[in-house]
Fold:
Amino acid sequence: MRKLLGGIFSTEMGFDVQFARNGVEALKTIKVFRPDVVTLDIHMPGMDGLECLDRIMLEYPCPVVMVSSLTEEGAEETLRALEIGAVDFVAKPGGAISLGIDDLAPLLIEKVSVAATVRIRRSRRLAERVRLATSPVTHSKPTGVVSFGNTLAKKVKSARGIVLVGASTGGPPALDAVLTNLPAEFDWPVVVAQHMPASFTGPLARRLDKICPMKVTEVTRQTNLEPGNIYVAKGDADIIVSFRGGSLVVMAAPADGNFPWHPSVDRLVQSAMRHVPATDLVGVLMTGMGNDGATAMTELHVAGGHTIAEAEETAVVWGMPGELVRMNGATEIKRLDQIGQSIKDRLK
Structure:
C-alpha cells in the first residue's frame, strides 16, 4: 500500500513524500519532516493507526487522511478516527490493489490537496474531546407505543415540516455536535445526506443512535417520516422525500448521474420542496468540499424556507456552506456549536 500511494503522488507535481512503516516511525518522521498532510492506515504493526492519530492530534496537529477498509469493521474504525481528528478518508481498493488504482488515484490526490488547506486548531480538537467525553454514551428512546385498555397501538404522528442536513468532508463530527443537541421529542423529522460509501452509513447511523436523544436509522427502504426521528441516507445512493398513502415518506433512490456527489444534498432538498411548503423546511449545510446543496438551499431560501450555513471558523472545509453564503442563500451563518439551538429556535 505504501508503494501504491507513493506511486500515485510521484505522478503529480508538487508533492514531497516521506514513508513510515508503522505508528512509532511515523511520529518520529512527522517530528522532523513536518508534513502538510499525513495519510494513515488504521492497521499497522505495533502502534495502530488510531493510537498514532491520537498522538499526532495532541503532539503535532496536522491534517490526516485515513486509508480505510470498506468492511463494516473498517467503517467503525474510520468513524472513530474522524471523531479523534482525522479530516477525511479514502477507501482501499478491493481485490487486487493494482486494479483499483485508477479509481483511487484522482480521489486521493483531491482529498489530500484539500486536506493541505485545512487548519487544524488544537483548541477545537480538545473541545471536541471534552464534549464527547462528557456526553451520555446512550440515550433511552421513546417506544412510540401507547396503551388503550388491553389494546396496544403504535403512536404515529405525521410530519408537518422537515429539517434537511447536508455534509461531506468533516461531516461525522459535525453531525455529532448538531444532532446530539436535538431533544427526543423534537417536533420535526431530520433527514441527513452525508457523502459516504454504502458500507459506512449503517455504522454512522448506529453510532449516532447511541449518542443522540432522537432515534437514528439508515434509510434502506420507503419509510414514513415521523417526528423525533433522524433518517440517514444510504451511501452511494440518493435519498428523496415523497408523499405516499397520505403521509410524507423518505426513500433511497439510485444515484442520479446529474448530481456529482452522493447522497446528493441538492436532490434531497429539491425533492422535499416538491411536497412540503418552503416555510416548513429548514436546510442546514455544513462542512464539505464542493458545492453540493448550495443551489437547492438557495432556491429554498428564496422560496421562504430557512437555511443555515456553518460558519467558516468551525467548518473543516468551507466549500459547501461557503458556496451557499456566496450565493446569498443563507438565512443564518452559525458556528457549529450554535446550529442545534438555531434549529430549535426556528421551530419555536
In short: Residues 145-156 have pLDDT under 50 and may be disordered.
